[in-house]
Structure formats: structure tokens, C-alpha cells
Amino acid sequence: MHLVIQALILGSLTGGVYALMASGQTLIFGIMKVINLAQGAFVIVASYFTFSLFQMTGLDPFLLIVITTPIMFILGAATQWFLLRPLRPDDAAELSLLVTFAVALGLEGALSIVYKTTLRSIMPGYENHSWTIWGYQVNEVRFYAFLLSIAMLVILYVLLQKTKFGRSVRATVQNPMAAQLLGVNSKAVSAFGFGLGVSTTAAAGAVFGLITPFNPGSHYDLISRLLTIVVLGGMGAIGGSVIAALMMGVGAALVSALASPIWADFTFFIVLLLVLLLRPRGLFGAKVRGAL
Amino acid sequence: MTTNNHVSLLQLENVTAGYGAGLVLKGVDLTVEAGQIVCLIGPNGAGKSTVLKTISGLLGIKSGAVRFNGEEISALTSRQRLSKGIVHVPQDRSLFPAMSVWENVLMGAFIISDQKLINKRIELAAELFPIILERKSAMAGSLSGGEQKQVEIARSLMLDPTIILLDEPSIGLDPKSRKLVFESIRSLASAGRTILLVEQNARSGLAVSDQGAVLESGKVALVGTGQSLLTDPEVSRLYLGASAK
What we know:
Structural class of chain B: alpha/beta
Shape of chain B: globular
Largest sheet of chain A: 2 strands, antiparallel
Strand order of the largest sheet of chain A: 1-2
Oligomer: heterodimer
Radius of gyration of chain B: 18 Å
Order of helices and strands of chain A: HHHHEEHHHHHHH
Strand content of chain B: 15-25%
Number of strands of chain B: 10
Largest interface: A-B, 22 and 25 residues
Distance between the termini of chain A: 37 Å
Number of helices of chain B: 10
Strand content of chain A: under 5%
Radius of gyration of chain A: 19 Å
Number of strands of chain A: 2
């Protein structure tokens, strides 16, 4: 029982981090119907940015998110503007898969040139600290990461639900032509929305670099997990992806504790297959298009 | 029509437009005077909705000219035309179904930043369409077809438009909702709005209109008052589904 509860704690904290990554992916899909295969690579890019900035400045990796978030936003918006926007609307959904996969490979190649393929870790000194609460270990970094994820998701929620920009994003998702007729610049919204989706990788990348050794190829593993979470939660449903991330985090931790860590990775693929076969719109797939 | 000092509110001069290489509009001439309701009727595929799209800027024209208050607006973007007071309510339900009625109405004022002005416009719109306050928290997608259309039209008032382009407002509605929509159009006209109406239900459309125009194969084939077109034997036979008496 102790093992199960410990796994639940660890899984929930890890799930929070996945939720952050997946919410950006979901936002991008919700706005543009683009399955961004480069989201994992953007996370790794953010991890390397944090790694380098930490080495240069010695600032806490969590503080560096303030610097890396706008950088990732610009990178995301530029990717949309220069590589995805020119695609013909009729082919955009299919071609964007290829384009974002090409972006992922390009980023991996660039990182391999700059940083080589050596595994790196961000080590501020407290990465292995844990608190013991009622006999259970709570990893300090994962706990902070969980809090950060909640904070970022709240910011994302407020931005989408309570601001004029958020209304324009949701309107564009639900009815692009009507939004345009009301004066919404759908091209700018798409670029901004993509940038916003990618900017969540700044926080995710910092956290990922703190809890896991990474190299340029780490994005393959990440993107497969993210896609599972997004499909399980329901494509385009941010709330759904958060719950799915927590479920997958806990599920994988339980499998890892009760069976083997090897099977934990496999859990994601089994869930992906089952969801696609049995409930393709996911657990919380929006009945109304665009109900972010 | 632009003669001597008179400038028509809206004028299309020999407009051609289409999608890809094909032409849908093949030289449309149309004039709308301020304060009028003008109804555009015609068979499916004649280009009625395309006319509205060229006016609101959703579709660029290939040749000809679109003038608004005498000014050539063909090169302006949708948003620029919107700020001139040209509001387009498209045929397909154009509400945002997963947003509340209130948010939908606020979207109508997207290009306005003055909150006091927005509140004032909402009050004015609510006088004609009380539903926007009565159902303000309801998701737009949960409203009936007639209610949705009312909210759409109310939303179009948020910019205090000079002209409202209404594309098939009664399509897909039950008779009761349809009646409600045409009453709404009459209310708008009483409030001094100019309306260019595209309507498949030609009889109802012409009945509320000051002027009518018949579009056939991308060209205006016939113009006249709403009443004269209603009693025209040829129009009656082709578009009203009965012989004129």
C-alpha cells in the first residue's frame, strides 16, 4: 500500500508537468487543427536554453523561465508565420504534420551540432532534495514543478477565458469566418496562439531538464507521451488534457512501481491504441468544436 | 446611383468575382440607397451570397468597383470595411456555439475599445432584441435556430452599422422562428438601418423590402420595388412558386 501511495504522489507530480506540456499542444491543435510534432523538440530546446543560461548566470532554473518564455514564444510564432501560414488551407492539416516533424528534426540537428549528443542535466543543487511527509517522499523539484504547472495553467485559463484576446482565440477556433467578419485578424491570432502554445514549453523544458537527463533526441519519447495525453484527453480540450496528463502520470508511476519501469513507457502506447480504437474523440473530447 | 450631387450608400459597378479561375459574378450592377431594405433573390448558385462577400471583403473582386458612400472600397480589408459600418451576417450560423450569448455580443464590438460605448450599444441592441440580456449566460449553441439568428442580428448592431448584409436569415428555421426573424428585420428598418438581404424565401424577403433585385447567372437580371417584383408574373413563376394573380 505504501508503494502504491508513493507512486500516486510521484505520478501526480509528474502528471502536472505533462499537463503543462500537453496544454500547449492542445491549444495549438484547438486553434489551428495542427498536430504539432515539434512540441517535444521545443521542450528540449527550452531545456537547453535553461541549461546554458543557468551555466552562464547561475540563476535558479525556475527564475530563468521569465527569460525563456518570451524566447520560446517568438520561436513558436515565427514557426507558424514562416512555415505553417504559407500552407494552402486545403492541405494544411496534412502538410503541417510533415512541416512540424521537419522542424523537430531540424531542431534536433541544430542542438546536436551545438551541444553534441551527450546527456545533460540542470543541477541547481536541490534537484535530489525530498521532503518526508508521513513517511512518503515528496521530491522538491517535482513539487515546485507541479505548482508551476498549476500557475501556468491558471494563467492560460485566465488568458483564454477572461481577456479580449482569449475571446478572439476561442472565436477563431469555433468559427474562423465569423471571427474575421467581426474584425479578428485570424492570421495574427494563429501566430500568437501557436507562439503561446510553444511558450508553455519554456517552463516545461526547465522542469524536464531538472528531473530528467536529456539530449537532442529526447524529444521522440516526449512527443509520443504528449500525443497520448492529448488524444486521451480529447483533441482540443485543454481541461481534458490536464486530467489525461494526471491520469497518465499516475498510471505510469503505478505500473512502474508495481511491474517495471520498462512497462511504464509501454503504458502510454497501449493507452493510445485503446483510445484510438474504442473512443477516438478521447475521454473529454469537445462535443462543440472549440470548447477550449 | 451617383448623379449630380446624389451619392448612393452602396454601389456595385460591373463587379466580377469568383473562386479560383472560375467567375461567379459576371458583371453585377447594384445600388442600395440609405435607409432602404433591398432584397436580392435568385436561384441557387446565382451568386447572391458571393455579392455580399465582395461587399464585406471576404472575397476580393476581379474587376469592377464597390463604392460605399461614393468611396471606392474594393481594396479595403474586411476589418477596414467593418469600421466603415459594413456588417455582414453570413448564411451559416455565425455565432460561437461554445461561448455565452453575452460573449458573442461582446465579440460584435471586438474592434471597439471604449467600454462605455460598448455598454450603451448593448442597451440599444437589447431594446430590439431582449434575448441578449434574458439569455446572456446561456451557451449560444444551446439556443434554438430562431434565437440564434436574433442574437446574430443583435450582435451586428454593436458597431452601429450603416448597412447590414443579411445572408439567408430565415434558412433552416421553423415558421415561428422565421416570422420572428422577419419581424426583427422590420424593426431594424424602423430604426433607420439600411439592409441588403439575400433570401431564398423570396416571397417573405420581397414583402419586407423597399427594393428587390433578381440575380441570374452572376448578373442582375431585373430590379424593381419589392411589391412590383412580388406581382411580376415572370418573377412569380420562377421564384415565388406560384402564378401572379
